[in-house]
Write a structure and sequence with these properties.
Largest sheet of chain B: none
EC number (chain A): 1.3.5.1
Protein name (chain A): Succinate dehydrogenase flavoprotein subunit
Largest sheet of chain A: 8 strands, mixed
Number of helices of chain A: 16
Subcellular location (chain A): Cell inner membrane
Shape of chain B: globular
CATH topology of chain B: DNA polymerase, domain 1
Number of helices of chain B: 5
Order of helices and strands of chain B: HHHHH
Radius of gyration of chain B: 12 Å
CATH superfamily of the domain at 430-536 and 559-566 in chain A: Fumarate reductase/succinate dehydrogenase flavoprotein-like, C-terminal domain
Cofactor (chain A): FAD
Oligomer: heterodimer
Active site (chain A): 286
Structural class of chain B: mainly alpha
Amino acid sequence: MTVPVRKFDAVIVGAGGAGLRAALQLSEAGLKTAVLSKVFPTRSHTVAAQGGVSASLGNSEPDHWHWHMYDTVKGSDWLGDQDAIEFMCREAPNVVVELEHFGMPFDRNADGTIYQRPFGGHMSNFGEKPVRRACAAADRTGHAMLHALYQRNVRANTQFFVEWMALDLVRDEQGNVQGVVAMEMETSDIYVFQAKATLFATGGAGRIFASSTNAFINTGDGLGMAARAGIPLEDMEFWQFHPTGVAGAGVLITEGVRGEGGILRNSNGERFMERYAPNAKDLASRDVVSRAMVTEINEGRGCGPNKDHVLLDITHLDPEVIKSKLPGIREISIKFAGVDPIKAPIPVVPTCHYQMGGIPTNYKGEVVVNDQIVSGFYAAGEVACASVHGANRLGTNSLLDLLVFGKSSGNSMIDFIKHAPKDLPVLNTADVERSVARVDELNQRSSGVEVNDARLAMQATMQKHCGVFRFKDMLKEGAEKILEVEKQVANIVIADKSKTFNTARLEALELQNLIEVAKATMISAEARTESRGAHVRDDAEDTPERPNGRDDQNWLKHTLWHREGNQLKYKPVTMKPLTVDTIALKTRSY
Amino acid sequence: MNSFIDEAELKRILWRSRRGLLELDLQLERFVSEALPGLSAAELEDYRRLLLLPDQDFLEYLNGKAPCPDESLRPIIARIQALQS
């Protein structure tokens, strides 16, 4: 077997914000840089980010990176690494201004400076009062960012390989990364992209859940490839959820609907929030509402044939109010739930939005395993865990993460490439052969489990056993179930064996990546017996020693899930920032 | 199956219906499974051109927030919209 080899200085997998920002750094340094993407770069999921990007520019009122750092540490429920958080918040004004110079059409003040708006959790003077820190381009911040970065990359001669799917990482016998194996969708031909430095910027894996706001492309390809190559995944139990997405679709219903009088009901038609929050009822906080919804479903009072969602009822509101105040919601409901909310309630369920964990890196984007840098391997963006988001992400820090760590990875790669031997080393073919064999096995299997069935089983298991609110017994059962689903995935079959744009095969390969993330999530979540940030359990009691169930004595540490034997190891949180004092542990309350 | 187009080309269109926005994925998934095989050659060409639009613009036109400036694409947009209600 000979697999053709293409050679570069740097290869980047993923062309969203992080991948494009890193590529720009490398190409502008004159390095031969390849970027592989499953879809056209400006159709990466970064395009969905609307809220903005935060930076303490202080254009409207005094602000400071140290205050931004405090908000980020607090948001992370102290699980974020304070060196990486300091780095990100200090760099924020630089990368935002740079992006402005790249042609990003930010909203502006009358004096021409970037307009900044308030955003949840952004405070001045260490949590004192709200501050305007979010920079946006109307409601298209991610879209504008992708376009500005893509144009700039074209100018810098970045080589794009569009509609290519990376399959596996290539490591030599010492574990140094040599590049990736990738498939051209058009032909199903497999190539090796050999490079001195390899960056994963493949985004998150929100599609492991039945209900997710993520686009279909978010299948955690980088995480699957890393796991198969023996790289552990960090803090995968932490996922951000939104309480009300349309069941079966994932499109969000704004919380404003409950503000207008929307009522949550179970299968008995009962307004169940009265039992959980007698005063606030349906207007209780996000956590309380999510917990109540999941408890109702878990206790068998969910709706629909699978009893897997609840109902958001606005049928009692004046149709004119719905039409005038909630037109977007009516449209979403008709389109994605097939229900006119004037006549019938909307099926809703807590919905996954963002992945905090990922491939373990330091703030330079270098992948770190057992305190050792994995030579030649880098990760940035949602696929990576630097860790700046810790147990929960502060709003607008995701776009900032892409810019800061895309750039810092790019710089680290430039430095590494300049010091590397001029000629690429001999390629280790063992990983290449394993990757080709994985595809061959799919091509040759003639009977087994349908890809769609296995995927649905995985998504239902994750949603039911490891969703927004978690129960000890359900997690235990879930860990067993997901290993059963893994057996199904190991036996998936595709009927279509054709070569050109074989979408069935692509979806099978994506599922092989998703299942790694699902296992990492479930197993890490079952083991962490506290509540912290977005990981909330029924058995972690709120006591004076453990406020909100957070157990700093035993759990102020990062999880590292290893694919081999589903082993869990842990490493300490970096509490020491780069130049300032530690932001000391405190109860997280807003 | 449309006789004027080969299966490979249809599958390419299928893949390109995968977008960066979930709302587009959901609407196009339904459209390609229910309507794509029955499109005329001209409609298919229109759909191919539609897929070249930036995601945020595409979604605005589909949601009726703004009319598509290219009038020749409005009929195919209307066909996708018709499947949703």
